[in-house]
């Protein structure tokens, strides 16, 4: 992949964020913090772009809570306790699961994502704020998101960056190693990890996606260059292409 300059990228994103808030004439933002690297990086970038008093952070656990880390991160960024809200989605999700007789963990994960979206947008409406998304380019290309769930947002600071670039940005921003070393997971079920679900790593995906989309290389040529799993990775992209095209209409 091309050389990544974390300092320049940080400046670029901060300018972008400030320009959006100026354009929309909004002063406040709501972000859902999961305990993962993407939401942590986005929160750090917001803290450098806006006054801390204008940032509302939601932690919306189902079973796994990162409450202590939530408070520690907020303290590092000079956020007031009044700007932090932990709202368990377990009771709501469990009720829906029971009513709809959901046994499929993927379906249940989609319900979790959409319930979180409802909470996030309700908070945003309450305080007249924009919703900050936390999606990266790898997830976007692979279709690894829930429509009308974690995909829903008003502003996306890191959607143009591959997952491996997010890690470089996290190191530059001096984000604690705990968040950098934690295995990426949507926490859809016990022991679930993104890479375990994919069957390939983010590093493998980024190298292939970069060559396929940015360098216009064929799968065959990517394979010849020795990169792993191009057929599987691009196959997942193709399988989820519809997510970027719906709703279909005349």
Structural notes for this entry:
It is a single chain. The protein has 250 residues and is an alpha/beta fold. It has two domains: 6-195, Rossmann fold, CATH 3.40.50.620; 199-250, no CATH class. The chain is 52% helix and 7% strand. The protein has twelve helices and four strands, in the order H-E-H-E-H-E-H-H-E-H-H-H-H-H-H-H. It has helices at 6-24, 37-49, 67-76, 90-100, 105-127, 137-142, 163-172, 177-181, 194-198, 202-214, 219-224, 230-239; strands spanning 28-32, 55-59, 84-86, 129-132. The chain has a four-stranded parallel sheet, sandwiched between helices. Helix 1 crosses helix 2 (37-49). The N and C termini lie far apart (39 Å). The mean pLDDT is 94.
The helix/strand order is HEHEHEHHEHHHHHHH
Task: List low-pLDDT spans.
Answer: none
- The CATH topology annotation of the largest domain reads as Rossmann fold
Note the beta-strand portion. 5-15%
The domain tally reads: 2
SSE topology sketch:
Elements: H1 6-24, E1 28-32, H2 37-49, E2 55-59, H3 67-76, E3 84-86, H4 90-100, H5 105-127, E4 129-132, H6 137-142, H7 163-172, H8 177-181, H9 194-198, H10 202-214, H11 219-224, H12 230-239
Parallel strand pairs: 1-2, 1-4, 2-3
Helix pairs in contact: 1-2, 1-7, 2-7, 4-5
What are its keywords?
alpha/beta, Rossmann fold, 2 domains, four-stranded parallel β-sheet, 250 residues, globular, 12 helices
